[in-house]
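If you are new to this repository, start here. Below is one unmodified record pulled from the training split, so you can see the exact layout before writing a loader.
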Amino acid sequence: MRTRRTLSVATSVAAAAVVAVVGVSAPAAMAAPPVPEVVQLGDSYSAGNGAGTYTGQRCWRSPDNYGARVAEQMGATYDNVACSGAVVADILEPRSLGSSTTRTATYELPGRVANVERHWLRQAQRQQLCGTPAQDDWYFDYTITDSTLIKGTGTNRGLTATAECQLTAAPQIDAVTKDTDAVFLTIGGNDVGFSTIVLWCMAARNAAACQQSLDAANARIPQLQTDIEEALAAVHERSNGRADIHLLGYPFLLNTDSYGIPEAAPTYDAGAALATFQDRGDGAMAEAMATLDSRLDGPGDLTFVDVKPAWGGHTHGLDPRSTPDNSDAWLVPVGAPGAQIPEWVHPTVEGYQASADALLAAID
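And here is the target side for that same chain:
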């Protein structure tokens, strides 16, 4: 029979309050409980796109995303390795970030070392020829593209080589350990073509292309469910089965469940098709988590969190009309003044708070 461990925000906060009151004179039985460890995985809706404050603009990680808010409520340590543009595969595999650059250097070779390029690479990495990554989970992948052996006197030699430097994010799962108490993530939107749907259904309002993008997205849902199960089973195993894993869904993108395009003479109800697709996606993710929770051993729970009720259903989605009223929107509108493209159609701080509220309710 599976033994469950409940990670409760209220319990953590109450225990911390007791310790703060009793102070250093408290008996051993009243010692401070371990600080929970939270890891955030996933895509832009996990990283923090749209929140407005970021640690950098490659992954768009924000201290104002839903995971950081919940971790603070829990009194937990927090490690965010989510990254804008991530797909499910990036949980298990390294991911290249941006275009590569090149660097050239000359290093001396000791004695008659056999593999000169390997020796050059070791020195290049030791001296950080490609630079220092801005995040702990990033590294540079070095590949020699050209080299010239330089002969000196006696046994002295050198090698001038050029390295291709590819900034790479480590597999997100590497942040999970046997000490991880909770994993939060949102993932899957990029696997089914999120940006294409936004382009044709919300920006260009092209009926044929919108329908085609949603048909393709619907066709990918079964594979997405399989991929999520595989990736999160691995995350569960990496934590020795002890971490509670919370997979959050996405809010409704539109503030309506019916909107015909093209707007002047509608031929396709993009609003209805998009709402139906989002509901199907939620169902697949919920089924994936329920399947994993029933078959995996360990105290950690695997839970799907539907954020739509906390967002008021369609209430705070975007107005799809060509002359919109987005005064109630908790998503950054397409073309919003001052917003960059990676922030469009992503939660504002109000949206991230709503997702945090949904997650807190699921944890409690």
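Two things worth knowing about this chain: The radius of gyration is 24 Å. The CA atoms of residues 40 and 80 lie 5 Å apart.
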